[in-house]
Amino acid sequence: MNTYFTFLMLTLSLSWIQNGNAQQFGEETGASILRIMYGEIKSADLDGDGDQDLIVSGQAGYQGNGQTYIYLNNGSGGFSLHQYTDLPHILFSSIATGDIDNDGDIDLFLSGVWSFSGNYTSIFKNDGNANFTEVDPYALTELAIGSSIFFDVNGDGSLDLFYFGRGSGFAGVTKLYLNNGTGQFIDTPVAIGGLQSGSAVAEDYDKDGDLDLLVSGNMNSNGDVTKLFRNDGSAVFTEVQHVFPGIYDGSAVFSDIDNDDDLDIIVNGRKNGVNTYHSEFHLNDGMGNYTNVGNRGLDSLGGCSLAFADIDQDGDEDVFLTGKSKAGADTCALYYNQDGFFTKDLTYYSQGLAQGGALFLKMDNNCFPDLVYFGHGDLCATQTYCFRNNSQGDCAGDDLPFPGTKDPTYEVFSNPFRDHIRVEVSEKVLTAAIYDMSGRLIHDYSPDSPTIDIRLMGIANGIYNLEFTTAYRPKGSSIRLLKVE
After folding, report:
1. Hey, which bits of 136-289 come out as E strands?
2. Are 343 and 335 a contacting pair, CB within 8 Å?
3. Taking residues 149-161, what's their average pLDDT?
4. Most exposed among 121, 163, 231, 278, judged by the fewest C-beta atoms under 10 Å?
5. Peptide bond before 414: cis, by omega within 30 degrees of 0?
6. Percent of the chain predicted with pLDDT > 90
7. For residue 18, what are the contacts with CB-CB under 8 A and spacing of at least 6?
8. Residue 66, Cα to own-chain centre: how many angstroms?
């Protein structure tokens, strides 16, 4: 069976005008990315060449088995199947990425159902060239239909593993494994409750230097929930007493929607078994207290996926949302942010997809984020779309010479840092981005200057990577930074 495809020749034209910049997305019809649903796609620099690659895992078609593929980025936004990867072919998949052994490359965690023959969960270490070796197979509790993240739970500088999903008895199970510093994981009790069919994200919502947990899904006897848990810094989690709408078929995420340097919470999805849909923003008052302010213009969908990025480079977070409407139609939309309220772009049209996922990433290393999303829709069994942001605007470096081979020099002030990073580079910087150790983008901008100057408020203590590009180093340079109180 052919496990990859040529994209459907849909016509997409997106254009909106904000701050004088026209945003234009065009479908990458020549891309050959696996069509999936009931799975996940993550982006990370897997081969250490400075650009974002893709890990794709899920069910290939309505009647298909699970598949897991890696696609390497050629630096210009083109993806090719990595021929030297032997990863488990699973569906109902969850993927976590992170440097678990502190050797400078991105490792993988995978869980799901292995070709309908039972649950599968394991960790794979990277040799630095995107070739992965399984570590201690079957040593972890095997779960599926859940979510997973690597993050530093106890502030010791090593990435720990948090995940949940459906166990062998069909009940939800939640697991926490602490990293001993060498990539070996120790099963550790966590008082959160068994979950499945949901989402998990870790951020420092209360600005106390450690990472807290926001989870959603079905919590066994408690039904569908969305809960925020505060971390005391030593892997002890306490539930925050705030009422969030319970969802099982959607997403709960953090984002600073009102640009006030604290993390708000967005919940979008539906309850299982009832025709109740939610779309709610909960604003953070700066002290970790939340207020429900309604949908702020965002539609309510089920089987949905949310992705946030500053699409138009105006300094605030915009939204892509895809899923199934209450009327049963698969739909997707782009919403741009205006002072914390969202307006749908009515010129946008593409096939909506449900039971999938969406992410913004830098496919081609320019200053405008590109889009990948997947799932099943009204007009297709399964699909995966790549859209390149071809916007013309004030991207740094438009007037710089053709790239050469010279490596820039730089000086960092200071490292470790508290909330301010300044780097003086020997030439003009085109783009700069901060990633955490899971490979997740924390902050990016276009300096158009030899000085990188970033204020990072409310992020947890730990190790981060600063990556930047210049005219002579389009593949990027990387600096490892340590955040302290």
Report:
1. 144-151, 160-166, 172-179, 185-188, 196-203, 212-218, 224-231, 237-239, 251-255, 264-270, 277-284
2. yes
3. 92
4. 278
5. yes
6. 52
7. 312, 314, 336
8. 21
The predicted structure's pLDDT at residue 472: 64
The yes-or-no verdict on residue 137 having pLDDT over 60 is yes
Nearest to 101 by CA among 162, 158, 186, 185: 158
pLDDT band for position 478 (50/70/90)? confident
- Token pair 């008895």: residue: 169
- Angle, vertex CA 106, rays to CA 127 and CA 187, nearest 5: 100
What is the full DSSP assignment across 323-380?
A: EE-TTS-EEEEEEEEETTEEEE-TT------EEEEEEEE-SSSSSS-EEEEEEEETTE
Residue 93's pLDDT band, with cuts at 50, 70 and 90, is very high
Enter the DSSP assignment of 311.
T
Residue appearing with tokens 């807290």: 212
DSSP symbol at 471: T
Rg (C-alpha) for the chain, rounded Å, is 21
Q: Is 381 left (phi over 0), alpha (psi -120 to 50) or beta?
A: alpha
Name the token pair of 318. Answer: 């915009």
Tell me what pLDDT residue 392 has: 66
Report residue 167 as tokens. Answer: 């166990």
DSSP state of 403: P
pLDDT band at 8 (very low <50, low <70, confident <90, very high): very low
